[in-house]
Prior knowledge:
The protein has helices at 24-35, 65-69, 105-115, 137-142, 181-192, 217-224, 241-245, 265-272, and strands spanning 12-18, 40-42, 51-58, 73-81, 83-85, 94-97, 118-122, 131-132, 135-136, 152-165, 168-175, 196-206, 215-216, 260-263, 277-278, 284-291, 299-305, 310-316. It is α+β, with helices and mostly antiparallel strands. The protein folds into three domains: 12-70 and 209-251, no CATH class; 73-206, Pseudouridine synthase (2-Layer Sandwich); 259-320, PUA domain (Archaeosine Trna-guanine Transglycosylase, Chain: A, domain 4), CATH 2.30.130.10.
Amino acid sequence: MARQRKGRAIDGLVLLDKPAGVTSNYVLQRIKFIYGAAKAGHTGALDPLATGMLPICLGEATKFSQFLLEADKRYQTTAKLGVRTDSSDADGEVIETKPVGDYPVEQIEALLVEHFSGEIEQVPSMFSALKHNGQPLYKLARQGIKVEVKSRRVTIYAIKLLALRGDEIDLEVHCSKGTYIRSIVEDLGLLLGCGAHVQVLRRLDSGPYKAPMMLTLPQIEAIAGVGADEKVTEAEKQCDLKALDALLLPAWTAVDHLPRVEIDADQQRKIGHGQPIPCDQPPMDQVLIFTQGEGEQRFLGLGQISDQGILKPQRLIQTAQG
């Protein structure tokens, strides 16, 4: 007999503006507690130093978190020149200091175009969350254990110099999944000859979700009516669940770039039980399956249309069974 999860069966996404100084798991657990959700997960951790876009999936939305992990991202960062740290960010220990030269804007822009545009090879930091034999690299690094980290190919779609203030550089980076901004900053510092580390890092966009859509943790706590008191128990919590649920984005917004197929009630019953059905749409690897109707249509999950015109269910949400 399957063990039933404690909490509400609430589905959707919260676009959290993660604050600095806390882990992604901390804010995940905080949101899960506020919503009283039975299930929750985030879509790509941000370092404690970093702030910004952290989509948190609740309930059935967790089935589509991989799409956001794979999505492009956009960041703004401030690089501190003249100081290198062991983690390549401001949370690390200083390992080298050098004088900062008077670098023309044109020189920096030329380096960005030449070395950090298009497909590039990157060696992730030893302080990243990548795993080696099941252990995150940052845990090994803090134990003084060094392992060989293989380079990886990432894509920088756009990189812009926003400002140059003496020993600080502001950059905006639009990049593919798996790009380490700290590696870009570290490498830029080495190219300039003075070294550099990430002083500020903020994720603005993740896939379809843009910066203006984010909510801060204090905003959500205020709407929930729980305040910022971590010691509030489940029994003492006085949340406005209706107002909270109104903040959620539907699970399908994470995959809204995929084409849609609408099916009738009889087809829904078959799809809900895992049965393939005929479909008059062209072959497609992945489609969104919705119920038919002029009113609010219900999202059922993902499917695939074969060359023979058969719609096969792939990843359905629990409400798909009719």
